[in-house]
Amino acid sequence: EPLIGVLALQGGVAEHLAALERSGARAIPVRRVEELDAVDGIVLPGGESTTMTRLLDTFELYDPLRARLAEGLPAYGSCAGMIMLASSVDDDRAAAVRPLGALDVVVRRNAFGRQVDSFETDLDFQGVDGPVHAVFIRAPWVDKIGAGVSVLATLPEVPDALGTPDATEREGLAGRIVAVQQGAVLATAFHPELVEGDERVHRCFVRIVRER
Ligand code: GLN
Question: Domain range spanning residue 197?
């Protein structure tokens, strides 16, 4: 079984560890360079990308993680984790986020307006059979992708789950890119680790790690 680390500085660490264990991997929290050195792949969880940036510095993990990613370490980022994997971040507080540049995309933080701040919807996901239930919490979306990046999922429409977007807002949401892959790097704007009993996205990542 591959050994997969979950960056454990803050955010949804336990849920990812559990989902990975259910997906045919051994999973460990990563807080130190020695742990980072030991893993075959890494998950960057959701949380808050400004805080994660600060903690990566505090724990002296920013440069080692960036270096391992540059060498091709397989990585999966959900939500804030997707922001951290990006090559660039586009918003008014972008200066507070120092993304790791493992994925050739521009992401927009907190991209969904206040009214659809958090919501759930079903998505088609490339490589996965049947709809994937996607939970979005103050999520980013992908604004631009580089040549080597494939789109795995886009928003179909946004149901009135938690917010009530008006017609104009709905129009601006449909088709937004919310999951991408570039080589061994996978990212989703949503949180599959929060949907218990469905490990299909984590299994995709475990397969990517195994194939390396
Ligand atoms: N809004 C957060 C950020 O900008 C991401 C939210 C999440 O990970 N659920 O980092």
Answer: 3-211
* Atom of ligand 1 at shortest range from CA of 48: 10
Q: 138 CA distance to ligand 1 centroid (A)?
A: 6
Q: Distance between CA atoms of 132 and 15, rounded to whole angstroms?
A: 17
Question: Residues marked as binding for L-glutamine?
Answer: 47-49, 109, 137-138
27, 207 contact by CB (below 8 A): no
Please report, for the domain that includes residue 63, its CATH number.
3.40.50.880
pLDDT tens digits along 147-176 = 999 999 999 876 555 455 566 666 678 899
Question: What's the domain count of the chain?
Answer: 1
Question: Using one digit for the tens of pLDDT, what is the confidence trace for 62-110?
Answer: 999 999 999 999 999 999 999 999 999 987 665 789 999 999 999 999 8
Tell me how far apart the alpha carbons of residues 108 and 188 are, in angstroms, rounded to a whole number: 13
Active site residue ranges: 79, 191, 193
What ipTM was reported for this prediction? Answer: 0.95
Instruction: Tell me the C-alpha to C-alpha distance, in Å, between residue 185 and each of 58, 158, 181, 212.
Output: 25, 26, 6, 11
Tokens of 62: 């920013």
84 three-class SS: helix
**Positive or negative: CA dihedral 139, 145, 148, 152:** positive
CA of 71 from ligand 1 middle (Å) equals 26
Q: Is 55 helix (H, G, I), strand (E, B) or coil?
A: helix
Q: 79 CA to middle of ligand 1, Å?
A: 6
